Amino acid sequence: MAFGLSIVAMAYCIGTVSGCHVNPAVSIAMFVNKRITTVELGFYLAGQIVGAILGSAVLYFFLSTLDSPLTNFGQNSFGSLGASGAFVAEFILTFVFVLVIIVVTGHNGNANLAGLVIGFTLVLIHLLGIPLTGTPVNPARSLGPALFAGGEALSQLWVFILAPIAGGVVAAILGKTLFDTESGNELIANKDV
């Protein structure tokens, strides 16, 4: 619930400033659909990666102060799925998440409800996916914890970067072609959540 409710809060807080792009898969999808420029994409990606690393550093600090320090930084794992199963799970979950974002913020979407719809979709995705892979559906959110956890988290990171990006790109294309999300939308970056 925390992931989804955090997105709801951020969408209504920073959505009007930055579009609340806190996920590279979302920003790349917005770029594919020409809602943001190449320069904006670069700034979003840099901010997302730096933010994820700083957030993980804060978590590392808190965990290191415990009497029995934890080594779980929220890193992702293939679990029993293996690489191919984890890739498919992350692809599908990110695809659904980004498609909802593309549609609800698109030409025929409802911007007033976008934050709630997106946040509750993320809750659903995490309820389904946490037992499978930890459900990042966000390459930056995977990178930050993996840097501090090291080992297996770093060796498996490629799946948690590539699968969400691929799922996001397919969602962008499908949203544009099947749901006509981009009619009249030309670089409306600050209106996207």
SSE order and pairing:
Blueprint (H helix, E strand, L loop, with lengths): L1 H17 L5 H9 L5 H27 L17 H23 L9 H20 L5 H11 L1 H5 L1 H22 L15
Helix pairs in contact: 1-5, 2-3, 2-4, 2-8, 3-6, 4-5, 4-8, 6-8
Description:
The chain has 193 residues and is mainly alpha-helical. It is built from eight helices and no strands. Helix 1 packs across helix 5 (114-133), helix 4 (82-104) packs antiparallel against helix 5 (114-133) and helix 6 (139-149) runs antiparallel to helix 8 (157-178). The protein is globular. The model is unreliable at 188-193 (pLDDT under 50).
Point out poorly predicted stretches. 188-193
Distance between the termini: 19 Å
Radius of gyration: 16 Å
- Our estimate of the beta-strand percent is under 5%
Mean pLDDT: 91
The biggest beta sheet reads: none
Shape: globular
| Extended strand count | 0
H/E series: HHHHHHHH
Structural class: mainly alpha
Helix content: 55-70%
Number of helices: 8
